[in-house]
């Protein structure tokens, strides 16, 4: 689509153009017009590809880390006393606050993350914690020495493309016919 960038002069023109208007601008191929319109609508709806919703990106590189944060506030009566059956008071064991592991986006040069209770953590599309503490997602490159708990994602060509499928043996309609011809050709060679 970069070859058509000179035909669209402004963001307003891009977001207001219909398929017929895009054709008059010189985008003749209907598949390319549909692709452009589909990507435009995804952008409007906030459906970005992998890494498209990251906040801290410097020179096309972002850092993701798995961190442990409190799941909820600790109980108010952590060491409260209660009466036992024999009438003696006893103290309960301290309640350890539960934690959960989440993926956070840091600047590429950051080494630590400090959690702010008032800050609502964002869930990033296509990125998740698997196997307890490893970050999994497309286009991630693990950082050395972190055992999968930290990774970087770099902007690269084709990262946000909608990839079309490929036909296997002539596609669904012709698959039996093409495979029969291939078997016949193999028998002739043998």
From TrEMBL:
Q: Which GO terms describe its cellular component?
A: mitochondrion
Q: Which Pfam families match?
A: SAM_Ribosomal_mS41
Q: Which residues form the Small ribosomal subunit protein mS41 SAM domain?
A: 1-46
Keywords, sorted A to Z: Mitochondrion
**Keyword presence, DNA-binding:** no
Q: Does the keyword Mitochondrion apply?
A: yes
Localisation: Mitochondrion
Looking up PANTHER family in the UniProt record yields:
PROTEIN FYV4, MITOCHONDRIAL (PTHR28235), SMALL RIBOSOMAL SUBUNIT PROTEIN MS41 (PTHR28235:SF1)
Family, according to the entry, reads as follows: Belongs to the mitochondrion-specific ribosomal protein mS41 family.
The protein depicted here goes by the name Small ribosomal subunit protein mS41
């Amino acid at each position: 689509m970069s070859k058509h960038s000179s035909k669209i002069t402004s963001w307003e023109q891009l977001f207001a153009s219909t398929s017929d208007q895009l054709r008059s601008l010189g985008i003749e191929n209907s598949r390319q017009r549909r692709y452009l319109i589909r990507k435009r609508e995804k952008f409007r709806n906030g459906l970005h590809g992998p890494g498209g919703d990251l906040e801290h990106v410097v020179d096309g590189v972002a850092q993701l880390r798995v961190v442990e944060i409190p799941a909820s506030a600790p109980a108010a009566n952590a060491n409260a006393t209660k009466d036992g059956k024999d009438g003696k008071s006893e103290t309960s064991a301290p309640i350890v606050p539960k934690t959960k592991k989440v993926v956070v986006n840091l600047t590429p040069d950051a080494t630590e993350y400090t959690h702010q209770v008032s800050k609502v953590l964002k869930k990033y599309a296509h990125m998740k914690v698997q196997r307890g503490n490893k970050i999994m997602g497309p286009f991630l490159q693990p950082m050395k020495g972190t055992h999968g708990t930290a990774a970087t994602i770099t902007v690269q060509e084709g990262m946000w493309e909608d990839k079309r499928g490929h036909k296997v043996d002539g596609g669904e309609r012709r698959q039996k016919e093409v495979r029969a011809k291939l078997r016949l050709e193999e028998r002739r060679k043998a």
